[in-house]
């Protein structure tokens, strides 16, 4: 599935682990430095940020940590699914857990994929490229 019609080159990341933020940011930058990654380390603040921006500023992609403070990635998706302005934005849940239950719940809510966080640096680049495959270039 590919989507279009959202902000220039913005990826919104809900992630509280600084190392994962930096590794993913470096991977996207290496793929294409015009991508801007905005990291928000808290689920409630992530939703509030989205609510505060105009439609034209919405991200092209959302990456949500499954276990993030205040609202989990799944809880964020549940909230966003109630609002039509977010339905066309691809959402990816990622986690250190490879739990089939977590994955099934995430997919059931309509995320484009559930990805287990890589344990080695080289895999971040591969995963970032895969994540970008859900964004249609305008």
Automatic annotation (TrEMBL):
The keyword Phosphoprotein applies. It holds the Pfam family Response_reg. GO terms for biological process: phosphorelay signal transduction system. The lineage of its organism: Bacteria, Pseudomonadati, Bacteroidota, Chitinophagia, Chitinophagales. Residues 10-132 form the Response regulatory domain. The modification 4-aspartylphosphate is found at residue 65. PANTHER family: RESPONSE REGULATOR RCP1-RELATED. This is Response regulator. Keywords: Phosphoprotein.
């Amino acid at each position: 599935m590919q989507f279009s019609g959202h902000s220039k080159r913005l990826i919104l990341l809900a992630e509280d682990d600084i190392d994962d933020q930096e590794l993913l940011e470096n991977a996207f930058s290496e793929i294409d430095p015009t991508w801007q990654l905005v990291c928000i380390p808290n689920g409630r603040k992530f939703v509030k940020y989205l609510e505060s921006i105009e439609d034209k500023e919405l991200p092209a992609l959302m990456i949500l940590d499954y276990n993030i403070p205040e609202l989990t990635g799944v809880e964020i998706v549940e909230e966003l699914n109630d609002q039509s302005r977010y339905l066309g934005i691809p959402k990816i849940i990622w986690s250190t857990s490879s739990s089939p239950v977590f994955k099934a719940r995430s997919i059931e809510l309509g995320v484009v994929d559930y990805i287990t966080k890589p344990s080695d640096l080289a895999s971040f680049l591969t995963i970032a490229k895969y994540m970008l495959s859900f964004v249609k270039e305008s």
